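Hi all, long-time lurker, first post. I run a small reading group and we've been trying to get comfortable going from sequence to structure in the token notation. Rather than ask abstract questions, I figured I'd post a concrete chain and ask someone more experienced to write out its structure so we can walk through it together at our next meeting. Sequence below, copied exactly:
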Amino acid sequence: MKSKKLVFLFMASSILFVAVNSCKHEIPFPVGVDTPVDGGTQTCSTDTVYFQNKVLPLLNSSCAMSGCHDAISHKDGVNLTTYSNILSTGGVRPGNPGGSKLYKVLNETGGDRMPPPPAAAFTQAQKDIIYKWILQGAKNNACNDCDTTVFTYSGAVAPLMNTYCKGCHNPASLGGGIDVSTYVSVNSIALNGKLLGSISHAAGFKAMPQGSSKFSDCKITQVQKWIAAGAANN
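-- Answer (accepted) --
Happy to help. Here is the structure in token form:
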């Protein structure tokens, strides 16, 4: 009888060991390992917020800067430069924006607010981007959002500046002494060659966006065509 009990305990322990170890493979977002990007060539849906198109550029521009939440500084242990790190160190809970630290700090006040003063707070539209992305499952997704036949300021250039550049180049944070928060200021660097030179990584210009991937050929072409057409406020 005693031997049967020992056999039973051994089998139960073995089953528990297998179950516990198998759970290790079910961790959805292991630190330092990015899941493959979903999509990228598909047409964008107006009902979906795409991480690679909207969320990552916004966080890189406004939060993942030197001294803050870039890979080197990772202030307070938070690194907002990659998908996996944004989810893990940013305290993102897919499907639950209200329970996600990344979203909550955007709505704090005073010194607890992110980005911290004197940097400009996220606009409501930018907060909504983060909220909706998390609500939709915080996926590492992308879509094809570029069309070279669209090259107006409002339709192509301003969205690029707001998403990729404005976080570092605004009146409260004039990186390199450059402001891209208004048409007048963008028009100025467009006409003097700095805008196209920087985003195309031309020799003699500081490559932009800093710390992020170079704009796609399509996006660079949009800016180039806008400038060639007179850089109008259209």
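A couple of things your group might point at:
Residues 90 and 102 are 5 Å apart (CA to CA).
Strands lie at 38-43, 141-144, 169-170, 173-174.
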